[in-house]
Write a structure and sequence with these properties.
CATH class of the largest domain: Alpha Beta
Distance between the termini: 27 Å
CATH superfamily of the largest domain: Spore Coat Polysaccharide Biosynthesis Protein SpsA, Chain A
Helix content: 25-40%
Number of helices: 7
Order of helices and strands: EEEHEEHEEEHHEHHH
Strand content: 15-25%
Mean pLDDT: 87
CATH architecture of the largest domain: Alpha-Beta Complex
Keywords: Transferase
Number of strands: 9
Protein name: Glycosyl transferase family 2
InterPro entries: Glyco_trans_2-like, Nucleotide-diphossugar_trans
GO molecular function: transferase activity
CATH topology of the largest domain: Spore Coat Polysaccharide Biosynthesis Protein SpsA, Chain A
Structural class: alpha+beta
Length: 244
């Protein structure tokens, strides 16, 4: 985000705020740290947060979410239920108390297909495990880049590749307003998804997972381009990057 620290000084929880502006401003107190970097990109911001945080457990916040008052007890209970967990994912509700998306009713261990549905504000991570694995967000993906989506999926897929354990807990920890309108699926959208599939699977046998994912994308409404055009843009995106 591109903010000054004023609006964050009175938070009642320990917080690290990463700002993306040219000021180079830094500020810290017992439970608050503000650091600015002259760069752009959501994944870069998250990586700076991982690098500079000293907490044991961390959440990824956004400027339009509200965390539950019983957040800490739910997180503690989740890690108590799954002591081997390195990352937990929870549920989002709308401000009116409705589920933000369709969720499973029971806890489960994530696999390579279930991570497709995870949003960043649902994630709770053990920072020491991320740092031990050298796990970071791919800075080619996310808002502010040529591929403005898919960073959470890549992050969680990389976590699985590094042997980290990821579990879903069917508890609400955050509220977020529903998007007011459908996302427009244009050339950039499909190029981004093609690049995402290349990054996740390369040309490995697991590429079939990406093909299945792309078929679902092609069947979605609100496309501003034809199916054939969508396929061509997806292939362009697939060929535009390496999977490293």
């Amino acid at each position: 985000m591109n903010e000054d620290p004023t609006s964050f000084r009175d938070l009642n929880i320990p917080a690290l705020v990463i700002s993306q502006n040219a000021s180079g401003h830094k500020e810290s107190s017992t439970d608050f740290q503000f650091i600015s970097f002259n760069e752009r990109g959501l994944s870069k911001s998250r990586n700076r947060a991982i690098e500079h945080s000293t907490a044991d457990i961390a959440l990824i916040a956004d400027d339009d979410v509200v965390f539950s008052e019983d957040l800490q007890s739910k997180i503690k209970a989740g890690f108590a239920k799954f002591p081997d967990a390195d990352i937990l994912t929870f549920k989002i509700q709308t401000p009116s108390g409705q589920p933000y998306k369709n969720y499973a009713t029971n806890a489960f261990k994530h696999d390579r297909t279930s991570i497709y549905k995870v949003s960043s504000v649902e994630m709770v991570v053990k920072l020491s495990k991320l740092k031990e694995a050298g796990l970071k967000f791919d800075e080619r993906f996310g808002l502010g880049t040529s591929y403005p989506s898919g960073e959470e999926m890549i992050f969680l897929n990389d976590a699985l590749n590094n042997g980290l354990n990821i579990y879903f807990i069917p508890e609400y920890i955050v509220s977020h307003p529903l998007e007011s309108s459908g996302k427009i699926l244009d050339e950039k959208y499909f190029r981004s998804k093609g690049a995402l599939i290349r990054r996740l699977y390369g040309k490995s046998p697991q590429l079939w997972l990406g093909v299945a994912f792309m078929v679902k994308q092609l069947l979605k409404p609100h496309k501003s381009i034809s199916v054939i055009h969508s396929v061509k843009e997806s292939i362009k995106g697939f060929n535009s990057i390496s999977n490293l």
